[in-house]
Amino acid sequence: MKSKRHFWAILAVIFFVGLGLWLGPYLYYHCLLGDCIAPDQYIMEFTKTGSSLVVLVVGAGVIRWAFDLRDREHQRIEDEQAFLRAVLADLKTAYDAVDTSRTLIVANFEGYREGQIPALIQASITLRNVRRALKDRGTKIQPALKQELTHCSDFVENIIHEYRRYFDENRYQGIERDRFWDGRWGMQRQGGDGTAKSDPILAFLDEAIYKLEFCDHIDSASRFFRERYMETMQ
User: Fold this and answer.
1) Alpha helix ranges (H) inside the chain
2) I want to staple 201 with a disulfide (CB 3.0 to 4.6 A). Which of 41, 54, 180, 184 is the partner?
């Protein structure tokens, strides 16, 4: 804003200085030296010079407006690219956290299973933040993309909810947390597809359902943002 004020101030100075440089010598040579001209001729000369200066100022203003428009467009594109990079990074962070947690839980690494709940919670928060950032930015979200992000977020939140619900109900029975995963893993090996799909934990532990209900959706969302980023590069 300050640079624009400086620009127009400079144009005003150019206008009045140019007018003065023309008007001073003209009055000196044609009036003070006795070679005065008729008022109508003077007005004509003054109008011609004033018109030239106005055209100069307007032309300079149009050029500056064009440069400002170009700069604003470049800034808009850079801002959108930065936003898309941040969203893609958040989606990758969420995916890595969920996938690493599942791998460690399924692999039955001693002491790792309970510790994966905070990672799942952080992944859930990251996915919610992506949805909130899109809403706060005023970005028009395509229904398909909104559905993909919602599906991913709900999938992780359902796992956390089921885990907390189970232990809230059994916290006075001395249930070991590792037995929770062991029991569900055994159910996953023995249960049918219907059981696995209806249980958030079994769906998480079942590789095929996990890929269908989480991986495919977050990959689809990431693909949309990558395509949008490539469009801004053109």
Assistant:
1) 2-27, 39-107, 116-137, 143-170, 177-190, 193-198, 200-205, 207-210, 216-233
2) 184
